[in-house]
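Case study 2.
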Amino acid sequence: MKQKLLNVGVAWLALNAALMPGTATAQDVKKGGTAVIHMISEQRTLNPALRASTGVYNISGKIVEPLIDKSYDGFEPVLATEWTGSDDGLTITLKLRENVRWHDGEAFECDDVAFTAIEMWKKLLNYSSSLQANLESVDCTDPHTAVFNYSKPMPLDLFVSAMPDLGHPMPKHLYEGTDILSNKYNTAPVGTGPFKFVEYERGQYVLAEKNDDYWREGFPYLDRIVWRFIKDKSAAAAALEAGEIHESGFNGVSMADVVRLAEDDRFDVGTQGYENNVAHSTVEFNHRNPILADLKVRQAMYHGLDIDYAIDTVMRGFAAPGRGPIPKAGAANYTDDVTTYEYDVELAKQMLDEAGYPVKDDGFRFKLRHRPAPWGEYTQLWGEYYAQSMREIGIDVEILANDAPGFLNGVYRDYDFDTANGWHQFRSDPAVSTTVWLRSGQAPGTPWTNQFGWQSDVMDAAIDTAASELDPIKRAEMYHAIQRQEMDELPVIFAIEHPFISITSKKLKNHHNTPRWNSSSWYDLWLDD
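Prediction:
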């Protein structure tokens, strides 16, 4: 079975029939029951219009719906039923679904979309504040028509690609006139989805129950969903085996347990359902540190990383070497024609000597404080591997322990780090979630954006131009140039690209049936006890 898993890792964008969940016919469906889902960490917000994050979507995606979602057949209507763009790219018009109500009974209408787009997506939502920088207004020509007006062209394909992650409307009547960031509904969301929020017990669980007034007739199948926060990966694996939880996603248990549980006939184990969540394991630099502002130092550090070894040991083969900020899943926008940095310890040492950082009497050249993201075993192991590798070339690395808020604040708000590692997720289009890692001017404190003190006029201009280019061929060429510049200047090392892995009880049916399943609504998920 281990060899089967490694083969999945080599071709991780392909669906592996042996690891795919089965499909049930309509007459097989059982209604009712409670699905219990493992969460490795909590971010203390459940508003997807303020925090674009899988840790948020995994819960709130069942409660708060986007305008448009993504299926294996393409983009599909949810709260928006139609979308068109003007020839000049300055206007995008959405037809909104009628007869939809928020969980408190109020009607969902265009005013909700307009308010959220301007007050949250444009001003506050990580990733989206850059994407919607040129959004001037949203006009409601009637209660179910929203017209987005831009000062520069917004490619329709880009807009649609962004909506599954960056297109969740929130109820205007609960946010207007309040301090949005401290609004109580950020941790008790009111949505239009198949499940209604009930309770959030910090550090323990979140509970949602069936929405009996859901607009999809006959859905959802489940009565409730419980998300349990279990930080200990061994405890999570034990809970899976005991039947106490039904699914652990996003690499929530150790890779050793992934391999072991893949041999257990009670579970489906694999990468299906993450095609829209391909990620990079990163090394992030604080360029405010003059040592790390030196390109030769960053290049030397890259040469000190044995990426193939890390893929085999940390990721158990479920990965490939990164080639910059855009993964192979970027299709036409990806190129492998970039500068690469082969593993070469002696070259790394030589480059550090040349940069003016010889080994001192204590055996080290300099010291760095490193924050690893607490997103599960592999981010911790990747951080430890990075630290060990740096010591091999004479750099002393102190690892700082974090919980999720500590990591996010320490790196992206307080800049209290020298290096950090986590993951960057690619979401359909480079302008959705990728270029914000490189574009300067991001709002301070915004997670997973360029808070690194690195700025390039050339990069900023390239990112802005690509985001407004309507010709897909020209746009792809621009992203190739961005990828090359990033690999030449290394503001961030996008070291390893990889899918995520889920361990799912076979009692859950219709699971992982979309390319962003853990982030989707689960309206058709059911439990066979």
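The mean pLDDT is 92.
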